[in-house]
Amino acid sequence: MLAALFHSTFYYHIGRLTEPTIHEQTNQQIATQDWRSLFPRKIWQVYLTPPKANKNSFEVDSKQLSDSASWLAHNRDYGYTLVGDDGAETLVHQHFAKNATLLRIFKELKNTGMKADLLRYMILSVKGGVYSDIDTINLKPIDSWVPEIYQKDARVVLGVEFDRLNGSNWGEVHPDMQFCQWTIAATPGHPLFSYMVDWVVTALEMFTAERETTFSELHVSSAEVMKLTGPSAWTDGVFAQLQQYEPDLRSLSDLSGLTEPRLVGDILILPIDGFGMGQAHSNSTNDGSIPNDAFVQHNFRGSWRHDKRSN
């Protein structure tokens, strides 16, 4: 029942937020500009205080930010921001103050993984630039991510995390294919991210209501985090937007097996190695080498799984 409600509610939001007059007006305004002129030279990462820690005395272990140096080294002249609790609160109140449920989520929710998921969508919605998890390594400069042929039309760059191909599915991933959200690049104001903010708020509100609990008392499994706020939810949101651009797309399997970047509307999808090299599935390069089309490597050290409100 919950899944059906998520589905119908999410697509209601998609329809409501993509009125043709708004979308056409936006396209007209940016039609003569390209990725380089619209894309903010900003890098965003998030580190929220763990639930058991005292926010007044907590300090980040610098070792946990060792991978962040790669982003600075490859992208000189880019601004870098590590968003913490105060920065998250400021963003919410400055740009989303009219959304009472969202304000309650950030005030009450204990699960830092879910809050970090929501934050990346919010940041990219209003600020643009590149969001990437702190356990990612930047392999090549951001300026090289969008091929020349797509510079005029690309507004979002994303990668594949899982591609079932002819193999079996994995337990917690989206059937057939999953887009990663450990790294995302976008120009500000893209409707995909307002969809995702709406999606997460609605999903969490419905989930807590069905469980007869509150945001502050919410207990979730890692699989539920994936479906409510994480890459599975992200994949649903992305695919719904892709279908707005190409109605002939019937399932995620229609995008399976990419070996070159594919532009759908204004969303550029990178093949598996773009952001997902080094994995033992999906035809990801996993022989110790770094392929030419690899831009990011994920080290899968997510600490959110150990939050006390995660299980």
UniProtKB/TrEMBL annotation:
BP-aspect Gene Ontology terms: protein N-linked glycosylation
Residues forming coiled coils: none
One Pfam family, short name: Gly_transf_sug
GO cellular component: a single term: mannan polymerase complex
One MF annotation (Gene Ontology) recorded for this entry: alpha-1,6-mannosyltransferase activity
Family: Belongs to the glycosyltransferase 32 family.
Name the record gives this protein: Initiation-specific alpha-1,6-mannosyltransferase
Organism lineage: Eukaryota, Fungi, Dikarya, Ascomycota, Pezizomycotina
